[in-house]
């Protein structure tokens, strides 16, 4: 069990007031975020057929929850890990045009997650995707989009302060950009997570870019699926989170692969057999739009804005009884 207990923790809000704050944050953020990035809200699946290749493979080792259904006994159905690939297909299927996009509520089960203060087997996030041109597949587009998202998060801080002034957690005023290689050069003696903690504690909020490729020390900063983000044009939004004394990831996002990037990354990860799947064939045949997209953690954002010590205070999931009992001793109110 991995659990951090902040000293003298005060939840500030009762469980019922916390629930009211969660509803306010979720409803307000999605409206402001959709308006800022010109995104329309769509309904999305909770599960997909395995044979389509649409499920997110995450780091490649997590196993999705799967089942068969009575009317399709020969097909394996998987609960999604995320909608990273489904969204790009949806933009084409529903006739979205240049610079238009979508967002949706994504609910997933990641049964292999290591549970701690910020990780749950239940994942809830706003998944979003937007069409861009081939010429916009660059760092300028990526950084401008990150700045837009940061702007909305900062505005939410002020909105929450107005409604729940006793509970709001104050955020830094700007976001900084750094690549995973620059981060290694800066802190060569630290592990990847220690490097994230160090830079976030120093700067407050960073967008850590270019995650997936091998660095000069022969290692990757973190494993990333090879067939949706372009590893040269992706990254994570990380905040220094004082209550837990660590970096808190709010969003993973990036410009999506074109055919060349996908083939290169599948070759690196020795997963070239995936090129035969329907989704990958659509990219190879230039049948899908160029896009940028990502996910923004709903519970993580509520946790950040309300200064909560455990993600279980802002979502209902399943936890070891020992973790629930230890939290209860320190006023951490697991739902």
Can you walk me through this structure?
- The chain is of the alpha+beta class and about 325 residues long.
- It has one domain: BirA Bifunctional Protein, domain 2, CATH 3.30.930.
- About 35% of the residues lie in helices and about 25% in strands.
- The protein has helices at about 15-35, 85-95, 140-165, 180-185, 190-205, 260-270, 280-285, 300-305, 320-330; strands at about 40, 45-50, 65-70, 70-80, 100-110, 120-130, 175-180, 205-210, 230-240, 245-255, 290-295.
- An 8-stranded mixed β-sheet has the order 1-5-6-11-10-9-8-7, sandwiched between helices. It has a 3-stranded antiparallel β-sheet with strand order 2-4-3, with no helix packed on it.
- α1 (about 15-35) packs antiparallel against α3 (about 140-165) and α1 crosses α8.
- The radius of gyration is 20 Å and the shape is globular.
